[in-house]
Amino acid sequence: MEQFLTQYGPIGIFLGAAFEGQTAVVLGGLLARQRMLSLWVVVTCAMAGSGIIDQLLFVAGRRFRSHRLVVRAAQQPAFARALSFIERYPVSYILAFRFIFGLRMVSPIAIGVSDMPTWRFTVLNIVGAMIW
Predict the structure, then answer these.
(1) 73/70 Cα distance (integer angstroms)
(2) Are 24 and 12 contacting, i.e. CB atoms less than 8 angstroms apart?
(3) Nearest to residue 8, comparing CAs of 24, 19, 23?
(4) Can you tell me the distance from the alpha carbon of 116 to that of 119, in angstroms, rounded to the nearest whole number?
(5) How confident is the model at residue 31 (pLDDT cuts 50, 70, 90)?
(6) What confidence category does residue 1 fall into, taking pLDDT thresholds of 50, 70 and 90?
(7) Residues 6+ apart with CB under 8 A from 65
């Protein structure tokens, strides 16, 4: 089992950070504590997984903002709440949405639908992933 975790743990942390979030990162921290993985491997995989999926969701929101599925999602209360916060506190929101339960996956799409410039989101997304 140790060999399996050592070999595939970074991939699991990357994918887990991208789609699930905190649980994968906590497990990665435990593996680092047990010296089965390097702490820097865990940190890098968690940052990359979180940052890349958020960037892809942002691009999807930007590209498909007028698609019926995105328009329908924009009518949901969580989406509307996210857009409201984005308009009032764009920098703070981008740095903090990873920590807000229920808005983790919808936020990058909502930011993509907003008027936020791509370059600005990208820079703030990298910083946010590093903080997370």
Answers:
(1) 5
(2) yes
(3) 24
(4) 9
(5) confident
(6) low
(7) 112, 113
> Residue 59 has what pLDDT?
93
Exposed (0-12), middle (13-18) or buried (19+): which is 110, by Cβ within 10 Å? buried
Is the Cβ–Cβ distance between 64 and 127 less than 8 Å? no
Among 10, 36, 35, which residue's Cα sits nearest to residue 25? 10
pLDDT for 124 equals 93
The gap from C-alpha 21 to its chain's centroid, in whole angstroms, comes to 8
- Distances in whole angstroms, Cα of residue 5 to Cα of each of 16, 30, 37: 14, 11, 8
pTM recorded for the entire structure? 0.82
The 3 state secondary structure assigned to the chain is: CHHHHHHHHHHHHHHHHHHCCHHHHHHHHHHHHCCCCCHHHHHHHHHHHHHHHHHHHHHHHHHCCCCHHHHHHHCCHHHHHHHHHHHHCHHHHHHHHHHCCCCCCHHHHHHHHCCCCHHHHHHHHHHHHHHC
